[in-house]
Amino acid sequence: MIVGWKWGGQIFPRIEGWFAEEDGVVEVPQSPELAQASLDRFERFRRGELGDQFSLSSTEVASVLRYSAPGMLPAGVSAPDVEFRDGVVALRARVAIQAFPGLPGLEGLLGLLPDTVSILIEGAISPLDDESVALVVHGVYAAFIPVPLPDGMTPRILTALGRRGREGLAVDALSFPLPDGVQSAHVLRDRLILVRDD
User: Is 65 left (phi over 0), alpha (psi -120 to 50) or beta?
Assistant: First the structure.
């Protein structure tokens, strides 16, 4: 009681933080250091030092995208963020409309938005072939529009954002290459799981 009265302003916020985390997991913010630590762990996994499966949190994946894989994002896309929940992948980023001239003409909807908009793509990871996986898109959201854009617009939005067609890839899906040494990838609850190639 005396401790709380005398040093409450200094002590209680720290104590509250200890109990505020769910399931005992401390959420680490995105950072270059987290990106590098995740890549270092991944290299150890590829060398066979961490078993046959490797898991990454959405914060780790977002850190790698934001700080360690600049060439992976097309020009005009910034502030990438990733969330995994119940097997669903949510990709969010800021998109500069000028960098994607195909976007403003989509049914006139995006032409009403500012020069840079927040785009959210939700979907699920599906196997594609021995070297790639597909993100099958369930919905695309733009800025302040509270409902997904019409399904018929999804292929054109993905094409405008740089989707490349390939055999076996649905028009409403994006392909992502698997890293060397990885044979498959999937999302389990809130983690990305990579399976090492034997």
Answer: alpha
The model's pLDDT over 144-198, given as tens digits with 9 standing for 90+, comes to: 778 888 898 899 889 888 888 999 999 999 999 999 999 999 999 999 999 999 7
Q: What is the end-to-end Cα distance of the chain in Å, rounded?
A: 59
How many helices and strands, by DSSP H and E, does the chain display? 4, 8
Are 85 and 190 in contact, with CB atoms under 8 Å apart?
yes
15's enclosing H/E stretch is: helix 2-20
Whole-number Cα distances in Å, 71 to 6, 64, 110? 53, 11, 26
pTM here is: 0.79
Phi, psi of 94 (to 5 degrees): -90, 130
* Rounded-to-integer distance, Cα 73 and Cα 60, Å: 16
Q: For the segment 125-140, what is each residue's pLDDT rounded down to a tens digit?
A: 999 999 999 999 999 9
CA 148: distance to chain centroid?
18
Alpha helices by DSSP H, listed for 97-153, are none
Domain spans in the chain, listed from the N-terminal domain onward: 2-196
Nearest CA among 91, 108, 197 for reference residue 149: 108
